[in-house]
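Please decode residue identities from the backbone states below.
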């Protein structure tokens, strides 16, 4: 039986090629995602290990998430630690975020994703003697008008040593133009993974980022030879005041890497979700392929039964074929996954996350996952056809027509209905309740609904297939009637092939509705709540210099400038955002108090959004505690509860002075400009203030709405691109099914040609059959997409997305594209059918 199985497999290499290709694509996505995420993790772990000392001294109670802070360590602490036993040297470091290098074309270098870092130059070695950023060209900065860049930043900006450079900061000096005097690099290889770094001498860095205080943001202590980090940490800790702590460099690096990798872990999850979608769609292709192949081999398998093979041996032979196909597909998929990981790396480099200098990481789990996933999916998909074949009696299999018992259709209908009901309940639980791991519950429910619809589709699609047959007969005559009959002859196969396309289009339709509804909700919120005449903000959503608001307040035609600031803290172990305004601006920003009094809103108090107040059980007069800020715990009094306001981007609002007292910098995140009666040319005058600051833009209401919609468009476009892989597999499924169907109907094709059907008519018949499959899949997918999209929009309506908008034009394009897909998918099978020799086709058994 094993020899017969292998010979059968080798004799049908081309027939299995496209089903193998489906596994290759799905496994490639799994492998590429894991390789990229492992490379990402390894690169950041290595980077942070080279950017900390043996022991790091930092504020004891502050949040360690790397956010902006004005909390500093007095320079006297460096002197106090100089003679610490086991310490070779002590170096103070100044670090700031939001220091953007502007190239010669007035465009920001980087800025998207990885941070723009500024600080002081230091030649201190990293922990364990690792070389950190080292001068590789030029010299160290001296004086207030000199700076050094890391090599990548210098290369991307186009500046050379000796040239004046443009740097935009979030400090009181928005624009500075020092001279580039040196280049920093990693002598043993490595990079900042897309981040930019500009280093000044220590006094200049203190002036820019610490308001001129003789202080540092952290201190590195380098260990003597033979002294461990733990030993040195203990000696350093004994000399520190209570408000400072000493941690080993390994712990500091691990903390920084863990926080960052947790923040970007969604990338791997995001990619693996689409790998799962591709594998599910590929499974439909494999089921169809093996179903047709097994049906075509029914006589061969029956003969083996007659010679003594058992049902178990027949089933096992099909599963062995699936095992071999899965192994080949997984191997090829792993290789393609390497290329895909390189492509993902190049893609993210365009968004600022530059890992091009990092070698790809192949973890054992990647290889194991690729083979486990590829083989299991293939064998699971082949099990149903194998099991079905084993139930066919040898005598029945020797006949020309093989019909499965009708009870199987009824059983599928029952199982499908149950799957739809259970899936809908799981989706409802994931969307509308607080079940643990709601995302997984939602995903499982969606899959059950899709599989349920697939199971019942042979029954529910009969009216559609009958109507198509009638329409084809009227429009295309006998050829159309034959095409309709072929689709109706085996509704199980027709709908299984259509279901692969259905899944892809259902998810595409869902995303189209979510994207369109989100943009419509943004438009409505801005139209109803936009205050002032212009909004000033950063293109990266980062803070900018407070001097901009000061200058704009002096522009002719400006009546009022309202500042907003945003701070990042920690609460219950999670990142937590706080907005800050001046109390006098609350009414202007449209903050409507539902409970409490606006007059009680002052330093040390907080206004809370009504939904957040309900979730947290807060009332006016309660205390509200934030666990970690730059200066540790912050306790605020609830002064009022306000109605939802889209102009305020967080659920809690405090005063600017409160944030400043807590160690947050005085940089602005957004400005609202209220114009006086003379608005002619005002936007141009405001734009002139930030003409040399490309990170800051001035927008009117329409432009502000466009800016808010842009990320939604980018996300939806990215998802469509990833779903394109599933759609490609679905199209391959149609091609494969039609090609195998032509082989299965070789005698029938020969008889039709013999009685006068021309090659052109034969090609038209197969094309019409393909269009039926594609349109059926598109209709089911669009209907499910509408249901999923509306359900999800209802689930998030309390998050400010209150408008449900159906993009009928886009959904119509999906349906029209399905006709094109059907025509294109039929090209190869139709051409093959047209080339069949008539006499040989008639003689085929």
């Amino acid at each position: 039986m094993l020899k017969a199985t292998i010979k059968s497999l080798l004799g049908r290499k081309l027939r299995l090629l496209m089903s193998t290709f489906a596994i290759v694509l799905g496994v490639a996505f799994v492998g590429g995602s894991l390789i990229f995420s492992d490379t990402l993790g390894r690169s950041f772990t290595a980077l942070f290990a080279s950017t900390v000392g043996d022991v790091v001294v930092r504020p004891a109670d502050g949040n360690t998430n790397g956010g902006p802070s004005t909390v500093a360590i007095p320079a006297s602490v460096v002197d106090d630690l100089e003679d610490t036993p086991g310490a070779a040297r002590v170096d103070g470091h100044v670090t700031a975020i939001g220091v953007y290098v502007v190239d010669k074309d007035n465009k920001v270098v980087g800025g998207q994703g990885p941070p723009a870092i500024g600080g002081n130059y230091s030649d201190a070695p990293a922990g364990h003697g690792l070389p950190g950023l080292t001068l590789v060209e030029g010299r160290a900065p001296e004086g207030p008008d000199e700076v050094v860049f890391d090599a990548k930043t210098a290369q991307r900006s186009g500046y050379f040593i000796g040239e004046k450079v443009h740097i935009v900061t979030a400090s009181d000096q928005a624009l500075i133009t020092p001279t580039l005097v040196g280049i920093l690099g990693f002598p043993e290889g490595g990079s900042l993974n897309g981040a930019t770094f500009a280093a000044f001498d220590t006094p200049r860095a203190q002036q820019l980022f610490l308001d001129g205080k003789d202080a540092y943001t952290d201190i590195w202590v380098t260990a003597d030879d033979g002294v461990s980090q733990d030993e040195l940490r203990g000696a350093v800790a004994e000399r520190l005041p209570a408000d400072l702590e000493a941690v080993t460099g390994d712990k500091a690096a691990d903390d920084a890497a863990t926080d960052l990798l947790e923040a970007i872990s969604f990338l791997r999850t995001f990619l693996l979700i689409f790998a799962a979608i591709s594998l599910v769609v590929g499974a439909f292709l494999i089921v169809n392929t093996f179903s047709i192949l097994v049906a075509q081999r029914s006589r061969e398998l029956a003969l083996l039964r007659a010679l003594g093979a058992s049902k178990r041996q027949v089933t096992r032979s099909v599963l062995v074929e699936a095992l071999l196909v899965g192994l080949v597909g997984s191997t090829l998929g792993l290789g393609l996954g390497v290329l895909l990981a390189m492509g993902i790396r190049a893609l993210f480099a365009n968004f600022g996350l530059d890992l091009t200098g990092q070698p790809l990481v192949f973890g054992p789990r990647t290889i194991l996952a690729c083979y486990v996933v590829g083989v299991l999916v293939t064998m699971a998909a082949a099990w149903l056809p194998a099991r079905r074949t084993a139930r066919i009696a040898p005598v029945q299999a020797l006949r020309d027509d093989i019909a499965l018992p009708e009870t199987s259709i009824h059983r599928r209908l029952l199982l499908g209905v149950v799957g739809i009901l259970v899936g809908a309940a799981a989706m409802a639980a994931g969307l509308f309740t607080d079940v643990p791991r709601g995302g997984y519950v939602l995903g499982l429910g969606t899959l059950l609904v899709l599989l349920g619809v697939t199971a019942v589709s042979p029954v529910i699609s009969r009216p559609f297939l009958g109507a198509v047959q009638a329409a084809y007969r009227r429009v295309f005559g006998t050829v159309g009637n034959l095409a309709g009959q072929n689709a109706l002859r085996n509704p199980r196969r027709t709908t299984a092939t259509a279901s692969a396309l259905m899944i892809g289009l259902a998810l595409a339709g869902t995303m189209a509705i979510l994207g369109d509804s989100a943009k419509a909700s943004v438009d409505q919120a801005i139209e109803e709540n936009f205050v002032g005449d212009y909004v000033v903000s950063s293109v990266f959503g980062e803070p900018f210099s407070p001097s901009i608001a000061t200058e704009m307040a002096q522009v002719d035609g400006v009546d009022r400038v309202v500042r907003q600031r945003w701070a990042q803290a920690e609460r219950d172990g999670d990142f937590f955002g706080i907005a800050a305004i001046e109390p006098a601006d609350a009414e202007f920003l449209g903050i409507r108090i539902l409970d409490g009094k606006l007059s009680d809103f002052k330093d040390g108090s907080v206004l809370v959004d009504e939904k957040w107040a309900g979730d947290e059980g807060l009332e006016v007069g309660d205390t509200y505690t934030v666990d970690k800020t730059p200066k540790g715990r912050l306790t605020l009094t609830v002064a009022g509860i306000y109605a939802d306001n889209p102009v305020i981007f967080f659920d809690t609002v405090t005063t600017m002075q409160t944030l400043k007292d807590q160690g947050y910098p005085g940089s602005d995140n957004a400005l609202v400009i209220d114009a006086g009666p003379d608005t002619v040319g005002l936007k141009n005058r405001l734009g002139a203030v930030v003409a040399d600051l490309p990170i800051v833009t001035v927008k009117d209401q329409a432009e502000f709405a466009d800016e808010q919609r842009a990320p939604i468009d980018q996300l939806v476009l990215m998802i469509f691109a990833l779903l394109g892989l599933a759609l490609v597999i679905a199209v391959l499924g149609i091609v494969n099914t039609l090609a195998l169907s032509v082989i299965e109907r070789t005698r029938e094709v020969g008889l039709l040609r013999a009685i006068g059907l021309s090659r052109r008519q034969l090609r038209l018949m197969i094309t019409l059959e393909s269009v039926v499959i594609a349109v059926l899949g598109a209709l089911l997918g669009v209907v499910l997409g509408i249901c999923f999209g509306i359900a999800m929009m209802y689930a998030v309506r309390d998050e400010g997305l209150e408008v449900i908008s159906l993009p009928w034009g886009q959904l119509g394009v999906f349906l029209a594209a399905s006709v094109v897909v059907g025509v294109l998918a039929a090209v190869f099978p139709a051409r093959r059918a047209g080339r069949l020799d008539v006499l040989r086709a008639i003689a085929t058994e």
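Observation: The radius of gyration is 33 Å.
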